[in-house]
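ok new one. same drill as before - structure tokens go in, u give me an amino acid for every spot. 232 of them this time. try not to just spam alanines like last time pls lmao
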């Protein structure tokens, strides 16, 4: 399954308010930053628009230049408040994706269109960028008499595993009908009695339990003599 990072991006946007802080000295005061952000979250949620989103990204970038941890810490605090994600899901997502997102943001040329594009792609806030016309020059022309290689006729079996989503954290019997991006795990807000129990072999709302993944792998040799495998 695909995890939506919209809440994280939203908090990235909201963190722009840090930019409005008067001086870096104040940013070091974590409590002050957290309070300020909390206050501005509600404000940002009411006024989300293209200009606000791009300004937010510029702000986040400026703070990230000073110290990436300040942004990540702020996001981890805000995320559970502006989304229904539990603190551990927020922290996990920010820890995993935050540094890469910030690196991308630091490389982005925000004012020349990147910010609008990010806001469009991630949150659908800005208008889609217009398609620029241009001429593409290929490195060399198509060969005049291209001949396809002749097949040897020898066939091999190749195992191609795509979008592998085996979840080592899958817990049979846990809540399969949760409100988090990934269910069938123990979340801090999991009810004592699940609405639907995660079965031993998996659930449509969850990633694949280890048991199913292993069982599938042991089945493969019964249907193919695999020469090599690729995981994409
Ligand atoms: C960035 O902030 C973190 C957390 O506040 C702090 O531990 C770290 O020393 C800071 N790094 C720099 C380079 O200032
Ligand atoms: C794998 O190759 C062996 C030897 O050629 C053959 O006996 C066997 O049937 C093959 N297995 C599969 C699943 O194709």
């Amino acid at each position: 399954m695909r995890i939506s990072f919209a809440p994280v991006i939203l908090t990235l946007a909201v963190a722009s308010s840090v930019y409005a802080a008067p001086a870096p000295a104040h940013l070091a005061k974590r409590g002050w930053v957290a309070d300020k952000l909390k206050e501005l979250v509600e404000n940002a949620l009411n006024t989300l628009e293209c200009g606000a989103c791009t300004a937010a990204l510029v702000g986040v970038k400026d703070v990230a230049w000073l110290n990436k941890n300040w942004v990540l810490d702020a996001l981890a605090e805000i995320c559970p408040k502006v989304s229904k994600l539990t603190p551990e899901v927020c922290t996990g997502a920010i820890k995993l994706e935050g540094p890469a997102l910030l690196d991308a943001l630091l490389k982005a040329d925000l004012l020349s269109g990147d910010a609008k594009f990010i806001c469009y792609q991630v949150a659908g806030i800005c208008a889609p960028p217009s398609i620029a016309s241009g001429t593409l020059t290929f490195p060399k022309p198509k060969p005049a008499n291209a001949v396809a290689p002749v097949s040897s006729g020898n066939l091999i079996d190749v195992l191609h595993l795509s979008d592998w989503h085996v979840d080592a954290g899958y817990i049979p019997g846990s809540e399969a009908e949760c409100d988090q991006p990934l269910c069938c795990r123990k979340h801090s807000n999991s009810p004592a009695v699940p609405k639907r129990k995660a079965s031993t072999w998996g659930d449509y709302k969850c990633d694949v339990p280890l048991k199913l993944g292993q069982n599938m792998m042991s089945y493969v040799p019964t249907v193919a003599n695999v020469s090599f495998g690729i995981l994409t």
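Residues 223-225 surround 2-acetamido-2-deoxy-beta-D-glucopyranose (ligand 2) (CB under 6 Å). and btw Strands lie at 157-161, 166-167, 208-209, 226-231.
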